[in-house]
Specification:
Layout lengths: L3 H13 L8 H33 L6 H16 L9 H4 L6 H20 L3 H45 L1
Length: 167
């Protein structure tokens, strides 16, 4: 049995909360949707910020294929064949799909145009071109994290529904 103080606190809290009646179901659903959207948006923004911070601050070992299979071809797509890229035989013989590098080619091109627009120094221009693919991949990873979380949430609520039905 709850203590009298706890019951009074609970009653006081309930009196401060918005009161909904049966005809208020749309308002209740709208309020719940806003609450869930804010939470989801906060989680997505946190994941993006975390992934970008991680991508820009971690200095680890890399495999050369990480560059030769996506960033080098992307650089060539964005800046031309005379831009100093090292293209491997798979690319010269067109054995790989250009879809993935084309995404990064767009990122390189936008970064270069932004650099011109902002009149960045050559050092800052180079830093921007180094950071842009990392940030792009960080956002992609954050979106994958977010939608995996959302899928888990849906699977859990579906599991709960199935447990309730089975009773």
């Amino acid at each position: 049995m709850a203590s009298p103080a706890l019951s009074q606190a609970s009653t006081a809290f309930e009196s401060d909360a918005p009161q909904f009646h049966d005809h208020d179901k749309p308002q209740r659903r709208a309020l719940q949707h806003v609450k869930e959207a804010t939470t989801s948006q906060d989680i997505l923004l946190f994941l993006i910020a975390f992934r970008i911070l991680n991508a820009l601050s971690i200095r680890t070992f890399f495999q050369p294929d990480e560059y030769f299979q996506s960033l080098e071809p992307a650089w060539e797509i964005a800046f031309g064949s005379n831009s100093g890229t090292w293209i491997t035989w798979e690319w010269k013989n067109q054995l790989r799909s250009a879809i993935h590098p084309t995404l990064f080619a767009g990122v390189y091109w936008v970064s270069a145009e932004l650099s011109k627009l902002l009149r960045l120094t050559s050092h800052n221009h180079a830093e921007l071109l180094l950071a842009a693919p990392k940030v792009t991949q960080a956002v992609i990873a954050a979106l994958a994290d977010y939608y995996t979380w959302r899928l888990g949430e849906r699977m859990e609520s579906l599991s709960t529904v199935h447990r309730l039905i089975a009773r």
